[in-house]
């Protein structure tokens, strides 16, 4: 018998555009022999199902159900495809936990913690073969820029602590640039992370669990013409080259797979996550950048690229994710 799945898309941040594209990829590749899928749009104005032959039908938030032509539809599980709030920060996960409805992502606690880059780094610090760039976490109401200058070495990366898509992020090469970079980041968030710059090659790698076993996908190397992988580099065609699988030695590959599997376990992850990291020039040391607990699933996103490089069909991949989590 088919399971009834809600595919939740949209959101309340600027990342909703990517979310809609992610949901389109997922909807096209879910096995309809096993799952009956209802795509539900979440916006600031409400939560709606919009069938092709009808007007919008509002979701009953009391039990997360739909009533269509007098028939009540309840869901066996939810495929959450919302990047940013409220899909990635634990809010929806807490809601579904209270209703007892399973979902495809990390739980509420892990989702909330991993939205905070500083807290995440503190938790994963100490994992074997994992390095964390020296950093300071600043709070808008009480910070001193001089602490950065005395405790960290230039150049710095300055970034909103809870942001996504590299919005509000700057690379600071001289102390004269610091104040402007902090102002830019604080416009996006009340907490800002300032990190020492790591000179290295940038990679992104997907991890998921199937049949109780952690599986690491082939990595993607990111080469950008810009100073770093900023918003422009992420979303402007031709600025960035993405190579899947990325070029690593066998030793690096084995080490990276061990590190990211350990990160997945340490943070108690579920479903699909993506971990970004540097391999430092000259040393080859692994430096953790961040984790994304609801990575993009658009046709050109890293995860679909990596699934293809593994020789797996997206339909089989999504089936494994749904079977493991729902």
UniProtKB/TrEMBL annotation:
<keyword id="KW-0460">Magnesium</keyword>
<feature type="active site">
    <location>
        <position position="301"/>
    </location>
</feature>
<keyword id="KW-0436">Ligase</keyword>
<keyword id="KW-0961">Cell wall biogenesis/degradation</keyword>
<dbReference type="InterPro" id="IPR011761">
    <property type="entry name" value="ATP-grasp"/>
</dbReference>
<feature type="domain" description="ATP-grasp">
    <location>
        <begin position="122"/>
        <end position="323"/>
    </location>
</feature>
<dbReference type="GO" id="GO:0008716">
    <property type="term" value="F:D-alanine-D-alanine ligase activity"/>
</dbReference>
<keyword id="KW-0963">Cytoplasm</keyword>
<keyword id="KW-0547">Nucleotide-binding</keyword>
<comment type="pathway">
    <text>Cell wall biogenesis; peptidoglycan biosynthesis.</text>
</comment>
<feature type="binding site">
    <location>
        <position position="276"/>
    </location>
    <ligand>
        <name>Mg(2+) 1</name>
    </ligand>
</feature>
<dbReference type="GO" id="GO:0071555">
    <property type="term" value="P:cell wall organization"/>
</dbReference>
<feature type="active site">
    <location>
        <position position="15"/>
    </location>
</feature>
<feature type="binding site">
    <location>
        <position position="290"/>
    </location>
    <ligand>
        <name>Mg(2+) 2</name>
    </ligand>
</feature>
<dbReference type="InterPro" id="IPR016185">
    <property type="entry name" value="PreATP-grasp_dom_sf"/>
</dbReference>
<keyword id="KW-0067">ATP-binding</keyword>
<feature type="active site">
    <location>
        <position position="165"/>
    </location>
</feature>
<dbReference type="GO" id="GO:0005524">
    <property type="term" value="F:ATP binding"/>
</dbReference>
<feature type="binding site">
    <location>
        <position position="290"/>
    </location>
    <ligand>
        <name>Mg(2+) 1</name>
    </ligand>
</feature>
<dbReference type="InterPro" id="IPR005905">
    <property type="entry name" value="D_ala_D_ala"/>
</dbReference>
<keyword id="KW-0133">Cell shape</keyword>
<keyword id="KW-0573">Peptidoglycan synthesis</keyword>
<dbReference type="InterPro" id="IPR011095">
    <property type="entry name" value="Dala_Dala_lig_C"/>
</dbReference>
<feature type="binding site">
    <location>
        <position position="292"/>
    </location>
    <ligand>
        <name>Mg(2+) 2</name>
    </ligand>
</feature>
<dbReference type="GO" id="GO:0008360">
    <property type="term" value="P:regulation of cell shape"/>
</dbReference>
<dbReference type="InterPro" id="IPR000291">
    <property type="entry name" value="D-Ala_lig_Van_CS"/>
</dbReference>
<dbReference type="GO" id="GO:0046872">
    <property type="term" value="F:metal ion binding"/>
</dbReference>
<dbReference type="Pfam" id="PF07478">
    <property type="entry name" value="Dala_Dala_lig_C"/>
</dbReference>
<dbReference type="GO" id="GO:0005737">
    <property type="term" value="C:cytoplasm"/>
</dbReference>
<protein>
    <recommendedName>
        <fullName>D-alanine--D-alanine ligase</fullName>
        <ecNumber>6.3.2.4</ecNumber>
    </recommendedName>
</protein>
<comment type="function">
    <text>Cell wall formation.</text>
</comment>
<dbReference type="Pfam" id="PF01820">
    <property type="entry name" value="Dala_Dala_lig_N"/>
</dbReference>
<keyword id="KW-0479">Metal-binding</keyword>
<dbReference type="InterPro" id="IPR011127">
    <property type="entry name" value="Dala_Dala_lig_N"/>
</dbReference>
<comment type="similarity">
    <text>Belongs to the D-alanine--D-alanine ligase family.</text>
</comment>
<dbReference type="InterPro" id="IPR013815">
    <property type="entry name" value="ATP_grasp_subdomain_1"/>
</dbReference>
<dbReference type="GO" id="GO:0009252">
    <property type="term" value="P:peptidoglycan biosynthetic process"/>
</dbReference>
<keyword id="KW-0464">Manganese</keyword>
């Amino acid at each position: 018998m088919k399971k009834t799945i809600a595919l939740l898309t949209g959101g309340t941040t600027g990342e909703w555009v990517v979310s809609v594209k992610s949901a389109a990829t997922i909807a096209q590749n879910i096995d309809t022999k096993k799952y009956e899928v209802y795509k539900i749009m979440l916006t600031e104005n409400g939560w709606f199902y919009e069938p092709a032959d009808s007007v919008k039908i509002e979701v009953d938030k009391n039990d997360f159900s739909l009533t269509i032509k007098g028939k009540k539809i309840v869901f066996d599980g939810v495929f959450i495809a919302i990047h940013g709030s409220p899909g990635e920060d634990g809010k929806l996960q807490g809601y579904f936990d209270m209703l007892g409805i399973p979902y495809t992502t990390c739980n509420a606690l892990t989702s909330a913690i991993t939205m905070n880059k500083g807290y995440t780094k503190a938790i994963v610090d100490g994992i074997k073969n994992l390095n964390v760039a020296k950093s300071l976490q600043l709070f808008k109401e009480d910070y001193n820029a001089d602490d950065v200058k005395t405790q960290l070495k230039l150049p710095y990366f300055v970034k909103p602590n809870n942001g996504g898509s590299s919005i509000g992020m700057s690379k600071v090469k001289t102390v004269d640039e610091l104040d402007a970079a902090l102002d830019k980041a604080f416009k996006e968030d009340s907490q800002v992370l300032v990190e020492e710059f790591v000179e290295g090659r940038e990679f992104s790698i997907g991890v998921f669990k199937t049949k109780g076993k952690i599986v690491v996908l082939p990595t993607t190397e990111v080469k950008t013409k810009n100073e770093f992988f900023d918003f422009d580099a992420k979303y402007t065609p031709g600025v960035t080259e993405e190579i899947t699988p990325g070029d690593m030695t066998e030793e690096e590959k084995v080490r990276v797979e061990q590190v990211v599997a350990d990160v997945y376990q340490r943070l108690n992850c579920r479903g699909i996550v993506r971990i970004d990291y540097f391999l430092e020039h000259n040393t080859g040391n692994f430096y953790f950048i961040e984790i994304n607990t609801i990575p993009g699933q658009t046709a050109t996103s890293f995860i679909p690229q990596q699934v293809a490089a593994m020789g797996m069909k997206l339909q089989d991949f999504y089936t494994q994710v749904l079977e493991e989590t729902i």
